[in-house]
Structures
1.
Amino acid sequence: MVFKCQEDSFLKEFTSKVLKCEETKESIVDYGKITDFEGYQIVLENTILFPAGGGQPHDIGWLDNIEVLQVLRKGDEALHFTKEPLAIGTTVTQKIQWERRFDHMQQHSGQHLLSAILEKEYTLPTTSWWLGAEESYVELDASSVSEDVIRNVENRCNDLIRDAVPVNVKFCKANDPDLNEAHTRGLPKDCMDTIRIICIGDIDENMCCGTHVTNLSQLQVIKLLGTEPGKKGKIHLKFLVGNRVTKTFQHMLDREKALTALLKNEPNKHEELVLKIQKNLKTTNKSLQNVLTELAQFEVDRIKNSQPKPRYIFMCKKEATPDFNRVICKALEGDGMFLFLASSEPDKPKEGQILIQGPEEHCNKLGQQITELLKAKGAFKHGKFQGKAGDLSGLNKCKKLVEEYFANLK
């Protein structure tokens, strides 16, 4: 069956009769994210809501005032997933969430154009593609694509967009000779009765079940974002089309304005200023490490020279780092003291690293209680514990626990 959305991709409202309404437990899949669903699947006489297929995600919309959360194709039926039932025989008004639909049309038609230019002009066939929530990619049967090719392909696609090349749809039967000229990466077997061919001028003919624009000018612009490694030696070429380009550009402008305010200089100086900040930070961190090493040694000397020699050390300094604590633990290893040292995360003060070290008898008595109070993850090994604490708010309870333990120890 050819659905109404495939006959007219720009139809935003349509009335149709309810043929089936059944309870269902199904997963909602949206841009790869899976959530559990329990509700109803509704079949209509026809639909303008596109069921997921051909690499294009499903539409969302409404049947009267009931929200459609997903549409899937099963044979020649489109299953509309809703939280509320509809009576069989009822005539409902379908409405589409147009912003999402048009975005998918732009990305999908843009992919057809991009894949055609890559294959015909650069012998780079597309083996699959992905339409994501923010950006998309075509998988190419190549291990790399040069920056010159990417730049030339982008310019060629945008030239054709500016030329307003028409995009038409042909409907063919399985034995139609027109199919010999059309490309496909494989259609489902139950889609072989009536086959749609998306024709972009004389540039490309491709069998496809998705929704598309009627003219390349509706794509507005295409932007190639570069490549990343794919599977089995292939490569992904990422791209944006139409409104996604302008939205991304606006996000970039917002970030640039924020950086300009923080750096107090014009945008063309950002790189220079950030490099300078990084260099200064590296120098500052090196100096800080030297100071912390000296401070750690000072603490070690103070502890070793204490009279009488302490049986335990409980230390949690604001300036402490995991390295600072490790220096102290290593220096006091073998002194027979029970050590507890903690350092917090700069951006998450309630979380941090803890070190516990000492005679096994003390670690066995105190270790599990301390790690439970601090929600710490890790394990004791040879009288030592090093791990992450999920909640440092229990430090005072831990300190009291250690103090009472040693006060009662004979």
2.
Amino acid sequence: MTEYWLISAPGDKTCQQTWEAMNNLTSKQNSLSSNFKFHIPDLKVGTLDQLVGLSDDLGKLDTFVEQVTRKVATYLGEVLEDQRDKLHENLMANNSDLPSYITRFQWDMAKYPIKQSLRNIADIISKQVGQIDADLKTKSTTYNNLKGSLQNLEKKQTGSLLTRNLADLVKKEHFILDSEYLSTLLVIVPKSAIPEWHAVYEKLTDMIVPRSTQLISQDQEYGLFTVTLFKKVVEEFKLHAREKKFIVRDFTYNEEELAAGKNEITKLVTDKKKQFGPLVRWLKVNFSECFCAWIHVKALRVFVESVLRYGLPVNFQAILLQPNKKSSKRLRDVLNQLYAHLDSSATSGGNAQSGNQDSVEIPGLGFGQNDYYPYVYYKINVDMVDNKV
């Protein structure tokens, strides 16, 4: 699992000092994590009331955008089918692999202009990802229906003789065609009953053409036989055949219909191939859009939460940490000690409220005790392959 911790701490005299203190303690001295500066531009702060309202909404937006991102990734895996092992290399963000994108994060000024209010930027992301989610539903339904139709037809080509399409097994010469009086039936006979079939088929009714049966095909369980008889005894023959557990398949030899059936499979295979390329491209492009939007939401959350916690003027350093294997608990302890002065209640097991006079106390932010630390913290898991939505 590729997990990152996105945190922020208030600037000391300079943000560089904040970075160096944290990096020295966690990375250089103790080798607990790999650390990266996380660049957030100078966003418009707005009023305190706006920030409080936005904080809650950004939490919901974060969840929504992550869900859609994972949905697109999961569906790309389904569409790739037997090439699913290539899913990882197809999940890119802005032409970079996901760890590179997140560790070298640059705010996209063109998509999310920083002159806009924070609320407007959140709305832009919400609309953008909402549209991708709606388009994904439409595209996946169309493609899944096509895939389902093809699978059903393929099952009919490969199933048991009881259920499969017989068109590709029979030939014109197996049938008496265009006769006023005679008809050829196709009969499915259990393998164990084939000797009995040969012994009794001529006696099941009157008016059966002697020695007219012919084995056309067999699978593991059944044999497919023809029998020719007078049309007037067909219903009686079916009845007596059923008593012996011989099953007459409804089948009329019609070359045009048989050709149409074969053409339908060919058409569906062609349609699926035609849709596959554009669909994969759309999924790759929109996975990138969603993932980039998601990391921008994380940046917005860090900005809003940092201003609410650490106050104005805006002075904090956002940092991305990648915990080293088996170091998470130790890393958490080191960070809690480093930033304990920001909020004593967060580390002393008291209520999750701010003990720093300069910070703003915000009731009802919805943090569970386990989620709250004296510094701003969000977890980012960029492993999109194994996580189901």
3.
Amino acid sequence: MAPTKNKPPKSGLSPGFFTMDNLRKYVYDPHYLTPTCCLLFLFEIILNIFIIEKVKYTEIDWKAYMQEVEGFMNGTWDYKELKGDTGPLVYPAGFVYVYSLFYKVTSQGSNLYLAQYIFLVLYLTQTLLTYRIFIKTVKIPPYALILTTLTSYRIHSIYVLRLFNDPIAVLLFYISLNLFISNRWFIGSFFYSLAVSIKMNILLYAPCLLVAYLTNLTLVETILNLFICGLVQLILGAPFLYTNPWSYLKGSFDLGRVFEHKWTVNYRFLPREIFESRLLHLGLLSCHILLLLVFAPLLKRYLSSYAKLKLVTDQVKIQLHDERRKRQKEDEKLSKEQRAFLESFEKQIKGGREVKNEESKFEDKMSKVTQLFVLPFFVTNLIGIVFARSLHYQFYSWYFHSLLYLVFCTGFRRPVMFLLLGLLEYCWNVYPSTDLSSALLHLCHFVLLFGVYRQLLQTSMIANSREKWTEIQRK
């Protein structure tokens, strides 16, 4: 985890606030990301309303979703009987409940205009959750977020012009990730399981989540969180499990599902026979597991370090809070004249400012600790996407919100980072996909994985060297 060169911002506005130096900070310094997020959020509202009002809606899966949940609304609880124009229902029970709600609210799915604005709210919520992670980790410079927002065509289309269920699953996961960062593990596990109940691609995060449980919680707490995850699935799936458990499990969690070659984004260059072969499926699954094992020691080290540092920072935070309260009580005992004299004296020796700077530096270090927790989740998901049997256009939402963060964890030079992001956006915007776009997508994925792995390895080696040096000094 490379240290940020810039210092955290000081509280208050100085007389020379509107200087070129300060303007540069609001463009390049990750500590000053919040104002940019506020402006971009307003821009996103206007942009998405413009898209809904001016760009024609494209029907892909919405009608089929409504047909699938219509059977449930009419009292059919056998999963194999729930079907639409695109085939049988292949999503878990949470999907059924969410889209049944949409079915009611949008007049049996006919009010597409209202549905688009519902997805606009989902998109804006997702944006806020992503901004919170970027702000807490102090990793992304403002200009980078501006560039990616202005060039992200496909993701806006997925949300407000297609109405897929993928964004809902991703939104629920990001709620859980934000809760984990805030040390709200039980409710975080609840939302994670809700995300899985919408679409099973969220299970790609499961290996990292298990390691996070084991490194940050006690064994009893880990078991309780796993119990919550399982209980949510049982409760949501109860009506279908009671009616026909086999058809529900086979329909909603079918790991052997065969995708249609015409929709693939990542394997257009393969002949249909190879694309649909079971051998390819097993080979990709093996590579997925193998690469998880390669990354596992490094990701475990990050999560273990996060747990230790989080404990220390929490204790120091409590101490700072107690000291602040103690100073406030002492100040209350002073008269107005004594308090005025003390404030004047502190300004002269700059003591008060130094105390504030110390607290500000501590808050900055706490934010950087969050990087140790976020990166393993994003990397684990990326590995799953790299070895996915097929990627469809809506699957871009699975990792779009983490790409900027991942690119800034590669250690590449800035032009290479933005070239990588640009090529990825290009690959997801080529319709229909071509041999070139599919091959280029794989190349970008592997370059991104290589860059992240190299940085993880370097950070681990530096940490090992520091630990050995500390042991030598102790001896």
4.
Amino acid sequence: MEKFEGYIFTALCSTNFLVSCLLFSRVTREQREPYMDEIFHIPQAQKYCHGKFNEWDPMITTLPGLYLISVGVIKPVVWLADLTGEVVCSTAMLRFINLLFNCGNLYLLYLLICKLHLREKTRTTSRRVLSALSLSTFPVLYFFNFLYYTDAGSTFFILFTYLMTLYGCHKASALLGICSVFFRQTNIIWVAFCAGTLVAAKMDEAWRVEHTKKRDEKSPPSQVPLSFSGAKKIILFTVEFLTSPSHVKAVLLVAWPYAVVGICFLLFVVLNDGIVVGDRTSHEACLNFPQLFYFFSFTLFFSVPVSLCYHRALRFLQALKKQPLFFLFVTGVSLLLVWKFTFVHRYLLADNRHFPFYVWKNLFQRHELVRFLLIPAYIFAGWNFLDSFKSRSLFWSLAFLACLLAATVPQKLLEFRYFIVPYLMYRLHMPLPSLPRLIVEFLLYTAVNAATIYIFITKTFHWPDSTATQRFMW
């Protein structure tokens, strides 16, 4: 980091923390009592604060990473400041932990951008800094910095894990991956992604060697051939690679720390008789393939300022013209997936405090044909998503897509919080956008954040059978 860039980034970090503290103060004044999932998280953290580590709320479905970190931070502060009484491990103090994670996420995002875009060194200082600031204010993630949820800490440890992978510190990465799993069990998918990038690098190297020998210039190793013959070629190569002892040995020599984490996780699943701890009735896995379409649409909306342009839309139309049979096949498969694999969680239909409730009610429940009429939009959003990865290697893209499928499809509940990590990974690996586009992106995120926090604070309501104040949120 150059000296001038360091000053700019430090100033932005300070400003971001100050603004976040002011918002945190307002949110906490308006909502002093635990809200939504906080009614489970906060009492459990307070039990840990009082040394009651053998007590567990069976309604909590995640491992105790958030509570352990909270106690590890708060206890030394309490001892140094000689604090006593109700302020110790209060709702506000526990929520403040996520503001610290917010600062960490901003710094990690900046480091990841610098590492992933090393080739773009000239005249990119402002773009790197603004990209990091913009992504740290990504609306769904930023909102939960003010409540005691697992999202900020979960994102922090996943980003830290991936950063260590990029720097080649695989043992440290594996340990951080374990920490991320303690925040949310499904983070094992992104630990697997870190290992997958190492496998992909070996496969890309072998693919380039093979195509250099064959002098096959029609299938560039950096792109995924969008054709049936191309798919067949990739599958055959993958099977050959994974059944080659020399290739498997080369991969294991590098990726063994992640393999150890994977084995430990499988042992946990066997002993726990499943991934979920506590209440499992609301977290049943299923093949909800339209979740992938919802994610593509979600991604298109939040990345419009940096991903969409006239030339990309024109390329999509040209692709439709050149490969009509392929897109017809994709449309047919999409119709089948939407028809046979759409699942609706009871929370989505019953809990009117969440934004997805209104998306489903006002869009998908308008008419039973709406979900099918949206398929062309899904296909464009998916194509736009894949087109953003043109600069990435073939097998890296496949590894990312495999992890994306694993992270979204098994989820029965449409919950935007589940899209945070895959969206950030997508956005981080896009080519570094121009400064005007980044400014528009930051303004979009700021506007959405302002609107959601304003609605949360001011637009309260009550249920007929309850006197408690209810608020709208992600």
